[in-house]
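Format notes (please read before filing issues)

Several people have asked whether sequences and structure tokens are stored in separate files. They are not. Every record keeps both together, in the order shown below: the sequence lines, then the token lines. Line labels are part of the format and must not be stripped during preprocessing.
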Amino acid sequence: MKHAFPSLLAVAAALLLTAAPSLRADPVGEVDTVFKLIGPDHKIVVTAYDDPKVPGVTCYVSRAKTGGVSGALGLAEDKSEASIACRQTGTISFAKPLPKQEEVFSERASLVFKRLRVVRMVDAKRNTLVYLSYSDRVIEGSPQNSVTAVPVDKASPIPLK
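Then the structure lines:
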């Protein structure tokens, strides 16, 4: 007789693998793309994230949000495509040195296995912060990605770890 215990361990492991830093997104707006008779419509949503380690930088991410009954219940898997634009929205400052590359935030794109991720990279030669958005899954990610950059005034060199 087989036990369900190994299956529960696999699900728990998958949940741990998908755990990542997550920040509260500030909703900016949304547009409907497909009418659904039952449940919410399919949408494109735009959210804003402030970089937690770089005050004065905000990233705006647009992505598809699946509607319908499965979307309303949180069971739908959203598309992998996303777009990102990060901008200086205040005085940029650095409390601590930054790593050369670091995940800044992530957001769930399916019930368990898929996440939208944003990674900050430092281009020290050009004194620029580069942000990359992409999605991944426990088994297989997507090559869909988007990149944006925020130049920092040369008078304020980006401190690196």
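For reference, the curators noted about this record: Residues 33 and 76 are 16 Å apart (CA to CA). The beta strands are 26-34, 42-50, 57-65, 82-88, 101-108, 114-123, 128-137, 145-151.
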